[in-house]
Amino acid sequence: MNSQIDPQSLSQSPVPATEPGGEHETDVIIVGAGPVGLFAVFELGLLDLKSHLVDILDKPGGQCAELYPEKPIYDIPALPYCTGQELTDRLLEQIKPFSPTFHLGQMAISLIKRDDGRWQLTTDEGTTLTAPVLVIAAGGGSFQPKRPPIKGIEEYEDESVFYAVRRVEKFRDKKIVIAGGGDSALDWTVALNDVAKHVTLVHRRDDFRAAPDSVNKMRDLVAAGRMDFKVAQITDLEGADGRLSGVRLKSKEDGEYSVDCEALLPFYGLTMKLGPVADFGINLNENLIPVDTEKFETDVPGIFAIGDINSYPGKLKLILSGFHEGALMAQAAFRLIHPDKRLRFEYTTSSTNLQKKLGVA
């Protein structure tokens, strides 16, 4: 075991991680760090409005980065072709001048309106964000992990069973079992091998969907005797009071047997659900948020919805539509935050003021 490993080096996010917890104040809270949420940072930044983004995924990019990183996209203006990951990377480069703060791997779970009129958003990791404007850019909703069909697994969740790695140190010196055959399972199998006391990867077949490089690294670790790989299925959990002591496995070759385990990480994919946003007190229609087409504001003043999660007559679920919505939302947000200031519309091609903000003048 390598005790010198830097947990930050294991981060899968291309942006600086913000420690969960604490209280933060900003101009605009954006729920959702997909392409539309990222471009909203740009439009808000041009108006000197600071943004904090919250996303349940551990990296920005939303569906483009999580589900379609290599899928070609052909309808982004002036980009005849790009992949989902390339689009994300370009947007992150574009918003660098505005230094947004990312709260990744966290789900927005509650929203209240304070006595001073600002919104207070709380995440499941205890982070509190306060701002006069909230923007929901959550696409089709938040990604939720698929729970494996193992009897009684709910009793161990958040104590011994985890569907995401939010703090690497939680797994230091523990015997862990990782289940799955995709990128998340293989990437964390390799990364946590230097932190955990022992890692066992469980997959139902000796064939993986993950990147070949990650699969090769896993096989090298197995060959070196530094971890185990089991072709099997998890049939049961062993333990008590939420604490795992082992998992029961079953395979054609070896029948049923147990593996010692203090933590189980099942990575069986993600599903999309609207999640706690449904309880924010906003008018919904068939799990979408109706908005006006002047400001893309919801029926609650100060709360905007842009991207695939909103609805209005003629709505097209295109990324470029979300970009347009973000631009108009930003203008409305400025007027709401600074009612006494004059908003002067400027072009980046000719405005020295905007070019200075972008660091090109």
Commentary on this structure:
The protein has seven helices and 22 strands. It is of the alpha/beta class and about 350 residues long. Strand 15 and strand 16 (about 245-250) form a beta hairpin. It is elongated. It starts with about 20 loop residues before the first strand and ends with a helix. Mean pLDDT is about 90; it is low at about 1-10.
From the spread of the alpha carbons, the general shape counts as: elongated
Order of the strands making up the biggest sheet: 6-3-2-10-21
Amount of helix: 10-25%
Query: Please, what is the average pLDDT?
Result: 91
Percentage beta strand: 25-35%
Element order: H for helix, E for strand: EEHEHEEHEEEEEEEHEHEEEEEEEEEHH
User: Unreliable runs, pLDDT <50, ≥5 residues?
Assistant: 1-11
Number of helices: 7
Report how far the terminal alpha carbons are from each other. Answer: 50 Å
User: Based on DSSP secondary structure assignment, what is the total number of beta strands?
Assistant: 22
Main beta sheet strand tally, sense and closure: 5 strands, parallel
Global structural class? alpha/beta
From the alpha carbons, calculate the radius of gyration and give it in angstroms: 22 Å
Summarize the structure.
Helix content is 21%, strand content 27%.
Can you lay out the helices and strands and say which pair or pack?
Blueprint: E1 23-25, E2 28-31, H1 35-46, E3 51-55, H2 62-66, E4 72-73, E5 82-83, H3 84-94, E6 101-104, E7 108-113, E8 119-123, E9 128-131, E10 133-136, E11 142-145, E12 175-179, H4 183-192, E13 198-203, H5 212-223, E14 228-231, E15 233-240, E16 243-251, E17 255-260, E18 263-266, E19 270-273, E20 289-290, E21 303-305, E22 310-311, H6 319-337, H7 352-357
